[in-house]
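Aim 2, interim progress. The first record below pairs a target sequence with its C-alpha cells.
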Amino acid sequence: MQNYDQTIADAAKAIEGNKTWEAINPESVSRMRLQNRFKTGLDIAKYTAKIMREDMAAYDANSAEYTQSLGCWHGFIGQQKLIAIKKHFGDTKRRYLYLSGWMVAALRSEFGPLPDQSMHEKTSVSSLIEELYTFLRQADARELGGLFRQLDAARDAGDAAAEKDVLAKVENFQTHVVPIIADIDAGFGNEEATYLLAKQMIEAGACCIQIENQVSDEKQCGHQDGKVTVPHEDFLAKIRAVRYAFMELGVDDGVIVARTDSLGAGLTKQIAITNEPGDLGDQYNSFLDGDYIESADDIQNGDVVIKANGKLLKPKRLASNLFQFRKGTGEDRVVLDCITSLQNGADLLWIETEKPHVGQIAAMVDRIRAVVPDAKLVYNNSPSFNWTLNFRQQVFDAWSEAGKDVSAYDRAALMSEEYDSTDLSIEADRRIQSFQKDASANAGIFHHLITLPTYHTAALSTDNLAKEYFGEEGMLGYVAGVQRKEIRQGIACVKHQNMAGSDMGDDHKEYFSGDAALKASGKDNTMNQF
C-alpha cells in the first residue's frame, strides 16, 4: 500500500489548476483510489501470478509451506471466506480460492442444475472469476472505509497516537485479493476454443488455469465412470493454447495445472498418431486393449488394426465407437501423462484419484520425480470421498498387517456411529487431520483444495435452519442458531447493511454532496443494535 500522505499529494496535483474541480477533496480521492487498488482483471492476474510463483518456490525449499483453498460458487462466499481467514489468522498467506467447474455446472447455469459434463455455458466460468474478484475488492473497500472512519474519529478527538496507529494499519493493509485456481474443464472445444476462453478467464483475473486430459464433448466428473482421455498431442495443444493466452495478455508467469484423469479413465476416443516406434503416440497406443493377429483372416469388416509393440494389434472397439485400455495400466498412463505435461509447458499436476491415500499418491509422484525432480501437485481433497470410511479402513488394514487384533471391528461397517469413540476411529481422525501435512511432505502436494465444500455447507446450514425455524423452535431457531452465533463469533456479516456497502455509499454521498448528503447510517439505523 502507498504512503497515505503521498496519495493525497498525488490527487491534489491532479486537481490543481482545474478551477471547476475546486469542490473535489484530494483526501477523498486518495481514499477512493486506495479502496480500488486493482483497476482491471489483468492487474489482478499479474499480482496473483507473482504470489503463486513465490509460493511454489517456497514449497520447493520446504514442503511444510504448502498452500490451500476452498471452492466457492458465488462472490459473496469467496468474500466471506477471505474475511474469515484475515480475522482468524491475520493474513491470507498461502491461502487461495478455487473455482470448481462442478459447482459452476450445478449452481451457475441458466439451464438449471447440471452434472459436471461441460454442458453449462462456458462464459459462466469467466463471469464467476470476475464476480469473485468484485466481491474481494469490495471487502478491501469496506475494511479500508472502516479504517478511514477511525482515522477521522481520532483526528476529531485530537488523539495523535490513535491517528498514527490507524495510518499504520492503512499503509500496511493486506488485500483480500488472492490467487484463484480456475477450472477450464477440458477446454470446452478445440484448442482455439480453449485459447479464447482462457483469454477471457485471464482478463477476468485468473492467474492459474487447470485443464484436464479428457475428451471435451465426452467430459465426465473425475469421480464418475465413463471418462475418456485424449492422446497426448491433443492435450499438449491445449496447454500451449493456454500459455499463448497468458503471454498475449502479458501474464508471462501465469500458472497452468495439467490434470490427468487416466487413473480412472479406461477409454479413449482416438488412436494416437505415431511416426516411429517409441514416440509419444506409440506409447499411448501401447496401452490399448486388444488382440494380436497373425493374418488378414483375423480381421473382420470394420475392424481397426495398428502396429504396436512390434506386432499387429486389433484394438477392442466398443459399441460407442470408443477404444478400451488394458486393465491395470492406469498408474503407468498417469505417470506418462504427468511427465509429458511438465516437459511441454505445464507448471503443476493434478492427479485425480479414487481415494485419499498418501502411499498411492506418493508412489506415482516418486516415479514422476525420477524424471522431473521438482514435480508438484494440486490435489483434490474431494467431498466425493467418504473420508471417514476410507481412513478407518486404512487404519484397519494397517493394524491387520501389523498383526494387531481387529476382531472387534467390522471393516465393511466402520462408518457406523458406534465406532466413533474407538481407538481405531480416533487414529483415523488423527490421520485425516494430518493428511494435508503428510501428503505435502511425502507425496509432492503443493496445493490442497476442496472442490465443492461450500455447496455442502450451504445445504447443511439450510437444513438445520429449516428444521428449527419451521419446527417447534420457531424464531428461536434463527436467533439461537444463526444471529446469536454471528454476534458472539464476531461475524462481520451480522451487520448486513454494512457488508452490502451501505456505509461506503454514505462515504461517497458525503464526498459528492457534503452536508446535503442523505445518509443511511444515522441513529435510526437498526444496525446500531449490533
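The second target in this work package is listed in the same format:
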Amino acid sequence: MASLPLSIEESKPYRDIGRYFEYTIPQNPEVTLQEIQREGTLWRPNPNNVISFPRSQRPVWLKITLIHYGNFPHTFFLHLSNPVVDIFELHSEINGKWITQWSGEQVLQKNKSIYSHLSAFPITIQANETRTIYLKIRSDNPIFSFVSLYNSRTFIAYSKRQDIFFAAYFGAGFMMFLFSLFLAHTLRYQKFFYFFFYLATVLLLNTYSTGFIQYLEIGNSNSWKNYLFPITIFLSSIFGLLFALEFLETKVFFPKINKLAKTYIIVLVISILAIFLLELRSFIQFTVGLISILILLIIGISALTLIKGKKKLEATLFLLAFGSLLLGAIFNTLTVQGLIKPFHIASYSLPLGSALEVFFLSLALVLRVSDYRKSNEQKQELDLQLKIAQKLQNGLLPQKRSHALHYPLGFRYSPATDIGGDFVEIIVNEKENDIGLFLCDVSGHGIPAAMIASMTKVSLEIWNDTLEKPALAAEKIRKSLLSSLAGHFLSAFFVYINPTRNILRIANAGHLPLLHIDRQGNINTYTSYGRAINEFIKSDIIEKTFPLPNEGTLILFTDGVIEARNIHSGELFGEDRFHNLIQSLATKHPQIICDTVIEEIEKFQKSKRSDDDITILALSLDTN
C-alpha cells in the first residue's frame, strides 16, 4: 500500500521529513531505479525521525511523495545532515524523464550539486504537482542522517549563515594553527608541538564533519577519503592525549596514570593496523569506541588534577575543552539515532563542540605562554644577577700572576656551578720581602657562597697590616663576618712566608693541611688546630711557625680535590690518589702541577663539573 503524499507549502520555512520516508534494502547492491519501481518491491515505513541504518552494508533506497499546494512553481531544497557519506543519489522525474543528481565524497566535483558540502538537492515542483522522489544512499561508513525540506528563501539564508559560521571557524582555526606553529618553533617545548599537530588533525577532521572535504579532490577517485577519516581520528586522539599529559604535567603529579595513558597510546598506534584487517565500516565503529575511552581518560586526568589542586585554572579549561567535545559527540550521537528531535544545530554539534574545545585549549595555552613569559623575565633577571656575581667571582681569583716575589706560582679553579664559593688571595710585600697566601672554602656554592667569599676578600684587608700574624688576622676576619654568615661557615688556611728570616708560619681555620713536596717526591704536611669560621663557636685558632724548606713546592687545595666522585661508580678521587699524582709531578712547574691535577680529576669523574668547587694553589720554593 502506497503511503499518502506529504503536503508542502512555500510559506513554511522548513520541516523535518525523515519520518515520512519509506525504505527498502535490496539484496542486489547494483539494483537499478527501474527494478526498484516494480510493484514487487517491499517498502517499509522509516522507523525513526532520522535515516539511520548504521549496520547496513548494502545501499539503502528511500522514497517519498510530495504534493505542492500553491499558485506558482517553487524550488525546494532537500537537505541531508550527514556530509560524511559516500554517495547521495537523488532520482526525480521531470516532464516524463528521470533526472539523477549526486552528492557525496565519492562523487567528483563535476557531478556534484552546487550545494555539495551541505548535501542538498534542489527540487522544482509545479503548482499542485505531485511528485515521487527516490533517494539512494551508498556508504562505507555507518548510515545516519536526518532530512529537512526548505523553501528557497530559508535555505539561501541558512546556507549563507553556514558559510559565515564555518568561514569564521576555519579562519580562527587556521590562525590558531599558525600561532601554535609559531609557539612550537619559538619556544621549542614538546607541549606546543603536540598542540600544533593536534590542532592540524582536528581541523582536518572537521572538514569531514562539515562536508568541506568534498571540495578536496585528488585524481579520479575520492575513495581515499573514507580511509583518511578514521586515521585522522586516531592521530588527533593520540596527539590530543600527548598534549594533555605534557600540558598537565601528569608525569610529575600522577606518574602511574601517566604510564597507563602512555600504554593506551601504544594500543592506539597498534590499533591503526586494524584498518588492514577489518571491513571499513567495522573499523570506524571500532575507532569511535577507542576514542570515547580516550576522551573519558583525558577528562578524568583533568578532574583529578583539579581535585588535587594542581594548576586549577588550566585543569578547569581542560575539563571544559574535552567536556565540550564529549557533549558535542554525545548530542550528535543521540540526534542521529533519533533519540533527540533533530534541528539545525544538531547536525553541527560535533564541530561546535570542537570549536569550544579549541577555544578553551587556546585559553589554557595563552595562560601557559604568559607563565613562560614571566619565567623568562625572571630567568633574564637571574642571568643578570649571575653575570654580576661572576664579575665578583673573577675579582676574588688571583689575577694573571706567574710569580710571588721571585718564586714560581701556579693556580687552577674549577667551580661546581657558574658561581663558586672558593677564594684565593696572594699578598706580596716587596718592602718586607714576605708573602701571604690565603685560601678559603665557603660552605655550599652559587651566589650566596660567592657573596660571602666576596665579603671575606674585603675583610682580608685587615691582614695586610699584620701579615706576620695570621692567627690574629683570622680572628679579626671572623668577627667582621659574624653578622653576614647567615648559617654559612668557611674553612680557611693562612700561610706567611718570609725567605729572609727563613720563616713558614701558618694558621688553620678547619681546613685541609698545607702540603710540601720535595724534588724527590716526599710529602710533608703543615697544619695547626683551629675550627672553621662560623657565627656560633669561636675558632680558637693556634698559630704555628716552621723553618721554611729550601726547595720543593707548597700546595694548598680545597676538599673538592679529594672528594671528586666518579659519576658511574661513585668512587672518590681520594687522598692517596692525589698524593700519588703530585709525587709524580714533584719536579714540575707549579702551574703544570695545578693543570695536571684538574685534568686527572676530570678524567676520573668522567665530567668537567664536580659536586663541589675545586681549587688548587702551588708555590715553588726554588727560584729556578
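The two ends are 125 Å apart (CA to CA). This observation will shape the mutagenesis plan for the next reporting period.
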